Amino acid sequence: MRFAHRWQIAAATIAFLAAPLGFAQTPPNAALHNAKIEHLIENLQKTVFLRETAISPNGTMVLWEQSGPDASRIFVAPLDNPSARKTISACSPGQQGIAEQAAWSPDSRQIAFFSNCTSDHTGAVFVASVKNGSPTRLATLDGFSHSLTWSPNGKYLSFIYVKGSSGPVNALAPTPPPAGVIGEGNARDQRIAILSAHGGPILQITPLGRYVYEFNWSPNSRKLAYVAAPLPGDDNWWAARLYTQPVHGAPHAILDPSTISGPLHGLQIAVPRWSPDGKQIAFIGGLMSDQGVTGGDLYLINAKGGQPRDVTPDTNLTVAWLQWQSASPGHDSFTVSTISAGAPSIQRLSIEGDAYHFQPLMTQPESIGNGHLLNGVSLSNNGKVAFIGSSFASAPEVYAGTLGQTPAAITQVNAHLKPVWGKAESVKWTNEGFHVQGWLLYPARYDPGKHYPLIVYVHGGPAYANMPHWPYPGYGPVPFSALGYFVLMPNPRGSYGEGEKFTQANRRDFGYGDLRDIIAGVHTVEKQFPIDSNRVGLTGWSYGGFMSMFAVTQTHIFRAAVAGAGISDWKSYYGENSIDKWMIPFFGASVYDDPAVYAKSSAINFIKNVKTPTLVVVGSNDAECPAPQSFEFWHALKTLGVPTELVVYPGEGHGFYKPADRINVLERALAWFQHYMPARN
Questions:
Q1: Taking a C-beta distance cutoff of 8 angstroms, is the pair 530, 450 a contact?
Q2: Strands 560-564 and 531-541: what pairing?
Q3: Pairwise CA distance, residues 285 & 500, whole Å
Q4: pLDDT single digits (tens) 596-628
Q5: Less crowded by CB within 10 Å, the N or C end of the chain?
Q6: What's this model's pTM, rounded to 2 decimal places?
Q7: Alpha-carbon span 145 to 190, nearest angstrom
Q8: Looking at residues 448-458, what average pLDDT do you find?
């Protein structure tokens, strides 16, 4: 789930296009066209995407990045007069280019950012004065970079750097077909780089052979804390350690979750943050599916190392992001973003001894950041806040104001957009002692006198959550609502939002307890809403694709299913995917040490139970959920006479980049559900 510069994504996508594997007899995007879906996608593509925002340290100015299909610009505006905005750009008049990842200098006078507005379109680091907006190029980039940050003393710019790379190490992107000697010889370093704020050479300061995921400066600007692992970085994040390192010194490992005792043993760590006095480091620890999709408890550890302390044990929410507010003996205070019952919020977390207390500071709008992650919050030194917010009912805008009050939207770039799908509401139920939540979308043009079909959309992860946000123009739950279906988006055990015990409740139990939670949710909404129980479908992508494959081997309540990038056999999957390290925390052992626990959750071992017509779709170059998993499932259903179809999209990875393919997946899924469980309104 790593960020890539958009000019690098485009180049990588073109470079990775490969010949189709031949599973589909016709080109995938030549199958059918649905005018309703094309109209829906066309409307969604009108959304102006606001990808990041930041408030100045002194709390007087706000910046945001506003993106179009071929370019992005950075806007800066006074907090008390947002309409008086001005553009920060390195592009010449008429030149198209990207400006992104802007960061305020500590004195609030300058903005640093990445841009490819150079004569040869090579990426570079720029600095611009807020007063006059004139940019200066400090250094040219020879590779992929992200996480641009100023040191607290304002002397350095720092960022993650993959020198010589045209893009990130990213299992979501299409991977080139295997060739030659297979192994780790081509694994790439991802290191912390620093650059003088006045320009000069780029210095990579962390060691070769260590892949850095994220970092944070100490308050005195003399050290950094970072999360890193040996190469290959895309696979080893699940075994990453926490390090500290002087700017010009050797690293010191202060935490290795594989060697400690207690609740963090063998789990993941993220979002390291130095305390204001430099004596402690706070971080989030827990069972996490992907780097960047953060959730867990908040931990503290001495900056010199030692045993970490879980300061939010047994909480019923998930901490997703944090920033220190104060540190004193026996008392620490943080601003955190959390997930609770499928909804994000910003809260004040106070720690006194072994006691902790959450105080809600803001719960609106319904989603913070980009709708998936909660790391899009920006705080000033004097209690001001800025973020990008959206919901199922409102398109993304920049919000800013005083923390603790309801911030106002300071942009109106998407105010003209209105949902063409039904309203959303949170639904809750209990099952086997667990409190479970989900989001229910009504059908567009809902008539309570009619009965409607229901589609259940299972999120990926599994450590993740369905949360309310404006949809992207791709595969997801919202289009089905627009086309006449109820849509249930459950957050069963294994999800974020009910505490770490809930997230860990499906370890070594994929497809069982979580499926029972989902079925209980289906029965709950069937009792409360006019849903035709004979027209219930199931779909999802990634882990949701696995659940779509596995569920139809365990129950016949689903009339039709669409499995996107799924997993049919965990035993063979272990040896096929490029990120097998993620499976150890979830299954407790490798497939070679405990094959039975992998077999237990493999749909292929129960395949003769399937009666549900199932459409299977996957990208040919998917490294996270390789195409052979979909081929195996489809082959079995075809052999057993169960209605099925497999569509392989050439050149696509785990996340589809080509608009035509994203539209086609929706067209095929809608046609599948319309055939077996039509919406009649």
A1: yes
A2: parallel
A3: 9
A4: 999 999 999 999 999 999 999 999 999 999 999
A5: C
A6: 0.93
A7: 9
A8: 97
Tokens representing residue 124 in the block: 């570079």
DSSP state of 281: E
**Per-residue pLDDT, 170:** 67
* Biggest CA-to-CA distance, the chain: 71
**Structure tokens, 200:** 């000069």
Question: Predicted confidence band at 487 (pLDDT cuts at 50, 70, 90)?
Answer: very high
> What confidence tens digit (pLDDT) does each residue in 503-514 have?
999 999 999 999
- DSSP for residue 45: T
Question: Both tokens of residue 439?
Answer: 């989001």
Tell me, what amino acid is at 98?
I
SS3 assignment, position 36:
helix
Give the span between the Cα atoms of 327 and 307, in whole angstroms: 19
Q: Which pLDDT tens digit goes with each residue over 276-285?
A: 999 999 999 9
Pair 222, 155: CB distance under 8 Å: no
Which residues, including other chains, have CB under 8 Å from residue 480's CB and lie 6 or more apart? Answer: 441, 455, 457, 487, 670, 673
* Residue ranges covered by each domain of the chain: 28-44+419-617+632-646+661-676
From CA 597, how far away is CA 510, in angstroms rounded?
9
Place of tokens 């957050």: 491
Tell me the C-alpha distance between 550 and 545, whole Å: 9
Coil, strand, or helix at residue 337?
A: strand
How many CB atoms sit inside 10 A of residue 142's CB?
14
CATH superfamily, with its number, for domain 28-44+419-617+632-646+661-676: Alpha/Beta hydrolase fold, catalytic domain (3.40.50.1820)
Q: Is residue 438's pLDDT more than 60?
A: yes
Do strands 424-431 and 408-409 pair parallel, antiparallel, or not at all (unpaired)? unpaired
